[in-house]
Amino acid sequence: MTTPVLFLDDASRHLGHIDRARAEQTAITLITTLRRLRRINRRIALNTSQPIAQHQITDDWTMQAVLGGNSFKEEWDFVRALSDRSPFSAELQEGISQEIDDMEFRTRLGQIPSRALAWATLLDSATVSFNAHPDWSKAWVETAYYTLEDDGSVAEGEGCIKNASLASHADEHIEWLKQLGFAEVPTAAQVWGEKSERFPNLRFLARTEKDLSALEGSGAPFLQAMASLESLEKDAGGWKKDSPWPEFSTKTTGESEQRQKLCWVYDDATGKEELFDWHTRFTGGLAGRVHFRVDTVNRVIVVAYVGSKLTRKISG
């Protein structure tokens, strides 16, 4: 089991000036929402873009300014402990920054930028927000995003992210929340030992065993790498007999000509170096890649590398 994490930043704060009473009500509504989330799933943690005390409710008020003192000691202790439970270390925050920096997420209607939306998207999670802005006062936040591709181009898209700014929003996501974080995570040794059963339509170069071992224990990156391999397995298994190439269900791209030199790896099955420039992405704390080639003769996908974005040639 892993610790499920929801994400909060101050993108949903009030714009302009409000009085203390309204700021206090906004903070209490957030805490009521968080309490409901914890009642549904007691494993949930909160990740914030800065220490929770410094979060701006509006230009005039921070969380600490509103909830400080003995009057709200219980509420303050609760929200601070929930934030302290987040499993993301400073190193992990830094590790994912490259992926986050290569993308921009905004609310679709008001075009409010938010890194919390990016985190929730990358980790297939959800956001928690203040009930203070129309874009965020719903159980789903409509998003527009822009991502920088490996070839320097910019891709655009739209989506929806689960959100809770009221306790009732948590109830709308209740079945998803109940299951969050309770999936059993296999070990790298189990995955490798069972690869023929788990991935009958994939072939792995021997070197990938150490890739999986290196990812084991990383939490979200390992889980997302497994999800990427499962998607490739499904795509290879569904390869149509009359088609020369499988249909990919997730985004797959080839490396640019300049970066292809990093992707040549010796394949024991063919007795020569092969080009593994095709890749799919995974995230969860790093800019992850699964590098592979499509064996059109044997109609399998051959995996050569599972790890962070290549900065040097794949080792043998």
TrEMBL record:
Which superkingdom does the taxonomy of this entry point to? Bacteria
Q: What is this protein called?
A: Uncharacterized protein
